[in-house]
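A quick aside before the break. I want you to see a complete sequence-to-structure record at least once, exactly as it would be stored in a machine-readable document. Don't worry about memorizing anything.
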Amino acid sequence: MLDVMGQGGLLMWVIAGASVLAVVVFLERLFHFHRAQIDAADFLEGIFNVLRRRNVVEAVSICEETPGPVAHIARAAILQGTGDHHEIQQTIESAGLAEIPRLERNLPLLALIAQLTPLLGLLGTILGLIEALMQAQQRAPLVQAGDVAGGLWQALLTTAAGLAVAIPAFAGYHFLVHRLEQILLDMERASVDVLRFLTKPAVPVEVAES
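That is the input. The structure line, written in tokens, reads:
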């Protein structure tokens, strides 16, 4: 393995470092999304049952103990309490917007790795071919296969390595984006349900005292 890395040149180590970073980012986001995506319908039904008993403190406590943006949105809305429909809606929207950067964190980095590693491989290919041509020119007219083999190895290895990193990184990025879209959809549905529940005239909910 070290021989292959050595034949690929410096860019092989750069591509290898990018591959490690891509794996770390993918696993971190996958774990984060796994914790963030809860059964929103069951969670909200439990919260609504608690609020129907006028137990705001317990509802807020459940939201604080539950991970994920849906719970955070519900907590913000409950603390806002009943009242003006527009104010509660703004509170929910602000809470949702605050969650989006946390969900999208490091995803652009994974996309960047997927885009850059093939270019790094292409750069390694060009540098390898330049090295091969320089060796051929220096040893002309008696050029041996071994004289240009080093440059050709670098050209082929960096291209292969760049694609080998970019393809799974690109696939992983789109898989995570799909998971993110599902979470955003849950947030949107939960926001509508919470707003509808809190603005019903028959269900007064007072803000919990701190």
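Two observations worth writing down. Residues 145-198 form the longest helix (54 residues). The CA atoms of residues 73 and 95 lie 5 Å apart. We'll return to this after the break.
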